[in-house]
Write a structure and sequence with these properties.
heterodimer; A: 304 residues; mainly alpha; two-stranded antiparallel sheet; 15 helices; 3% strand; B: 426 residues; alpha/beta; D-Maltodextrin-Binding Protein, domain 2; five-stranded mixed β-sheet; four-stranded mixed β-sheet; 19 helices; 47% helix; Bact_solute-bd_prot1 (chain B); SBP (chain B)
Chain lengths: 304, 426
């Protein structure tokens, strides 16, 4: 073998690694290193400005498990996640099915559903906080027309969760719909044709052919939405009338999510050690929920 | 596959890696034009825009950049910048409620005494100077800017509608004490049931508490006394009573809703330290010009807010930064800021100056704000702020909000707040 052939073989074998290396280097610097450093910090009493105040082992974690504010935040996060993600994915699926049909001005409608996602989340949150204002908000004004008493959207637990979920849904439904649409377009058309010939209804075709065919895509959106839902932060934080000054997610922590609690501990109370412990517990929780999601979603989808 | 391709991929990879590394450890440096670049980090309007231009004109070798962010973000950002050892402005503003927290990390700041700050001490009201200093006065952390001498703003038209006197002298006499203030609230609510008497119980509470010598922490040893100090309970009960009687707008102070409510004229009074006049004007808008007025606050003067300029150690030009901070906080400049923004100077030479005391505010029905706030400043006794003050205060604010929204009784809310406060200072 000439050296040129040898080099060629080396090239085919190692060049792919070289090409993907930049991602892993960047991930190492901005992903892995902070992750490990956070774990290190979480084992210390660590003041945000002054740094290390001494090794305390798992004390932060032990304290976290008996901290009722942590459990409250966890409950809120799960509630907000379910309230926003489940209806949102169903809505996206329906929307995608509609967009998949021969519409006039197809490109316009398809681009249109993505618009909410393009707008800055801070702007969205500010507008929604206005819409859901207690005294002068449009939502309460509309409710007034049909004889419903004004709702204190910021103060009541369920009301605040609904308002925040509506924000999340508004932003992400179109985005997920486009992902579903892309997947639906690759479903072979002859399957639909034979189903039609057999006399299946549109509803039946949708659940028996479309949905099972885009199974991997649904799985993907479920996992991505889970990760996003567990890290919900900007929408509730900006919905809080007290803003970051209190950062408690309402006067009784009624909509404080885990990341908001992390932020409160770390950046308002300067307790970086405790905050890091929350971050790591959150990381593990996301991992667990994602795995559960993955198994459940795959099982459900394979039944079809 | 050809050799050139091998070479090319390797080269691309190398470039990508190098770019990553550069991005990871890049850093700024002064421009090549030999000018000293200073940055100053503030929140809300410190009134520095024109002063900075002037300073640059008289100091051609200095270039100043002002960075403004919202108050809460400003202090959070500063904390992370100090922790990270980079990114902080050369001069940073620190609010009174936050300075105790930063005082604990004084090794991250320049001791201004090293540059001769101690010679300036006599410029400030003694309490203001002491808030910015530590180590028995040997470490000067910050130079005082404004202070928040207290008054009460009210809407003339709503007072008239309720059959109350509307001129500021008589209004001030309506409420020599906070108990009387509550009585006025009752009269007001009976006559004008559609309007709220005050924006939020939280501000009333803070105003009353700021008139006492000690709040949540003991002056002597910085220990938590919120559960023993009767003044805390009294202030809380009084403010909560307004909330229980639905005489407050239940608004988060200075929030978006607060601005809307100002615009809709839905409440009649609000506590107003000097710096709040600008916020009220911005919120209520031009159509409310002349409708708001300023009267003396119940219970005499109080202290609310006010900031300091400090110099983080990580800056490259501490001496120049100190010189600029010294100039900006000098009485001459403070007087001009007062005229421009209404922020009350914390130096007697400035707030006693005839130019300042003669100042009236056109928007607030030509109220003699210079005289009102100047007088209030004279009788001002600052509240002692504990090191953990900023951890405890929001807990009580939330508790009042729960009373206002009808979730809890005053007693329940106070008990929960005390428990949360104890947890916070643990």
């Amino acid at each position: 073998m000439s050296w040129r052939d040898k080099l060629g073989r080396l090239d085919t074998r190692y060049t792919p690694y070289l090409i993907i290396a930049p991602f892993f280097v960047v991930f190492g610097i901005f992903g892995l290193y902070p992750l490990l450093f956070t774990a290190w910090v979480s084992l210390h009493e660590w003041q945000l400005i002054d740094g290390d105040q001494g090794f305390t082992g798992l004390d932060n974690y032990a304290e976290l498990l008996s901290d009722k504010n942590f459990w409250n935040a966890l409950g809120n996060t799960v509630s907000l996640f379910l309230l926003s993600t489940v209806p949102q994915l169903f809505a996206a699926l329906g929307l995608a099915a509609l967009l998949d049909r021969g519409l006039r001005g197809r490109a316009f409608w398809r681009a249109g559903v993505l618009l909410p996602n393009v707008i800055s989340v801070a702007a969205v949150a500010l507008v929604f906080a206005q819409l859901f204002g207690r005294d002068f908000g449009i939502v309460n004004a509309l409710l007034g027309f049909i004889g419903v008493d004004p709702v204190d959207w910021h103060a009541e637990t369920w009301a605040s969760h609904l308002a925040i979920s509506s924000m999340v849904m508004w932003r992400w439904t179109g985005y997920n719909a486009l992902i579903y649409l892309a997947a639906m377009q690759s479903v072979p058309k002859d399957m639909y044709e034979s189903a039609m010939l057999d006399g299946a209804s549109r509803w039946r075709v949708f659940w028996s052919i479309t949905v099972p065919s885009i199974r991997p895509t649904i799985l993907f959106t479920v996992i991505v939405s889970t990760i996003g839902g567990m890290q919900l932060f900007v929408e509730p934080q900006l919905f809080d009338p007290g803003g970051t000054a209190t950062g408690t997610g309402g006067d009784d922590r009624q909509f404080q999510t885990l990341v908001m609690y992390l932020y409160e501990k770390g950046f308002r109370l300067f307790d970086a050690g405790y905050s890091s412990a929350i971050a790591w517990v959150l990381f593990l929780l996301i991992l667990v929920v994602a795995v559960v999601n993955f198994t459940v979603a795959r099982r459900i989808a394979s039944k079809g | 596959m050809s050799r050139t391709l091998v070479g090319r991929t390797t080269a691309i990879t190398a470039v990508a890696l190098a770019a990553t590394l550069v991005a990871a450890c890049g850093g700024g440096s002064d421009a090549g034009d030999g000018k000293v670049k200073l940055s100053i980090g503030v929140f809300s309007d410190f009134g520095y825009a024109n002063l900075i231009k002037e300073y640059q004109a008289s100091h051609p070798d200095i270039e100043i950049e002002q960075r403004t962010v919202k108050m809460e973000q400003h202090h959070t950002q500063l904390a992370t910048q100090l922790a990270g050892g980079r990114g902080a402005a050369d001069i940073v503003a620190i609010e009174e409620g936050n300075i105790t927290q930063f005082r604990q990390s004084k090794d991250k700041f320049v001791n201004l005494a090293d540059y001769g700050a101690k010679d300036l001490e006599s410029q400030w009201a003694a309490w203001k100077w002491n808030q910015g200093a530590t180590d028995g006065g040997n470490f000067v952390l910050g130079l005082g800017t404004d202070m928040g001498s207290l008054a009460l703003c009210y809407r003339r038209d709503l007072f008239e509608a309720a059959g109350l006197p509307a001129d500021r002298e008589s209004v001030g006499k309506l409420w020599p004490t906070w108990e009387k203030y509550l009585e006025v609230a009752d009269t007001f609510s009976q006559k004008t049931p559609g309007k709220k008497f005050v924006d939020t119980a939280q501000n009333v509470y803070k105003a009353i508490l700021d008139q006492t010598e000690e709040g949540y922490f003991a002056k002597a040893d910085d220990s938590f006394i919120g559960d023993k100090n009767d003044k805390v309970k009294q202030a809380f009960t009084l403010a909560a009573t307004l909330g229980e009687r639905k005489q407050t707008g239940a608004l988060a102070p200075f929030s978006q809703d607060w601005n809307v409510a100002l615009k809709q004229a839905s409440f009649a009074t609000t506590t107003c330290p000097a710096w709040a006049l600008a916020l009220i004007k911005a919120g209520a808008g031009d159509e409310a010009a002349g409708k708001w007025d300023v009267a003396a606050a119940p219970g005499g003067g109080g202290n609310w807010g006010g900031s300091f300029l400090a110099v983080p150690k990580q800056g490259k030009h501490p001496k120049e930064a100190y010189e600029l901070a010294k100039w900006l906080t000098a009485p001459e400049q403070q007087k001009r800021i007062f005229k421009e923004t209404g922020n009350l100077p914390s130096e007697p030479a400035a707030y006693k100056d005839p130019e300042v005391t003669a100042t009236t505010n056109e928007y607030f029905n030509k109220a003699p704000v210079g005289q009102i706030f100047g007088t209030s400043a004279e009788s001002l006794k600052p509240t002692y702020r504990g090191t953990k003050d900023s951890k405890v205060a929001p807990v009580f604010g939330n508790a009042l909000s729960r009373v206002e929204t009808g979730k809890q009784s005053t007693a329940e809310a106070f008990a929960q707040a005390l428990q949360e406060a104890r947890d916070a200072v643990k």
